[in-house]
Specification:
Blueprint (H helix, E strand, L loop, with lengths): L7 E5 L4 H12 L4 E6 L2 H13 L3 E6 L8 H12 L4 E4 L15 H29 L2 E6 L14 H20 L5 E7 L6 H8 L2 H4 L1 H12 L6 H12 L7 E3 L8
Helix pairs in contact: 1-2, 1-9, 4-5
The chain binds NADP nicotinamide-adenine-dinucleotide phosphate.
NADP nicotinamide-adenine-dinucleotide phosphate binds next to α1, β2 and α6.
Amino acid sequence: MNALKGKTAVVTGGGRGIGRAIAVGLAEQGVDRIGLIARSADQLSAAARAVENAGARTKIIAADLSRLDGLPTIVDDLTAELGGVDVLINNAAVVAPLGPTTTVSLQSYLDALALNVVAVAGLSALLIPGMRERAWGRIVNVSSGVAGHPTGMIGGNAYAASKAALEAHSLNLSAELSGSGVTVNIYRPGIVDTAMQGWIRDQDPAVIGEQMHGRFHSYHESGLLISPEASAAKLIARVAGEESGQIWDVNDDVDAG
Ligand SMILES: NC(=O)c1ccc[n+]([C@@H]2O[C@H](COP(=O)([O-])OP(=O)(O)OC[C@H]3O[C@@H](n4cnc5c(N)ncnc54)[C@H](OP(=O)(O)O)[C@@H]3O)[C@@H](O)[C@H]2O)c1
């Protein structure tokens, strides 16, 4: 039986890229109601149309998740429209600020941690009580290979630190929820052809460093980037399972259909 059928999901950063592909993929797997959160209302509307075409009802919320005070209202709005949330995909993140750590403002560092880590913990904390009551919940936090290899992205200190913190948060939370029916897993999506990659390529090499500039251009030019849909399929293939506290990687040998 398909455990996702009839469920309700929320995908942060569901307006474009990997998040949008995950939302459409969940709808194709029978998820009934899907909430999409991001700042850009136009992208959310377009993503919602794609999700609805795939068979799910949607609720879009245009909000900045790094404004942590707004999280309870976001969750209230979502649950009022969709009911209890069974699947939470914490996918929204920023890669900024980039550049030598000595040049980065502490505010931009804090903003990255607020979105990439604290908002994830906050949304999870708000949705876990309902998942526990129903004794079934799935949380997947979208990370990056940089968490396992922090020196692989010199000039991306805040991003590397945020994804390492995200993974520690996820593994700790998984252990805390052991036996509750609520699982927490991490997904490293690979090198994916999205706006985030394009944004990095567009940055001034004098600011982000020749090494990072060259590396992200070579990903693009060598045809290494995979599609958001191909990456999303690997997450969706595992989301309904019982395992928890795992670091899933796009390169894992998983039958993604
Ligand atoms: N692409 C890659 O190669 C790659 C590699 C490793 C890991 N990842 C991870 O994969 C995830 C998705 O990345 P992507 O490549 O799909 O990025 P993307 O194209 O930039 O999409 C990011 C999504 O997050 C939303 N978002 C950004 N800031 C937000 C904020 N403050 N509040 C609410 N929503 C916000 C964006 O919408 P708005 O801007 O409209 O808010 C967008 O919908 C991220 O966690 C990223 O770290 C990506």
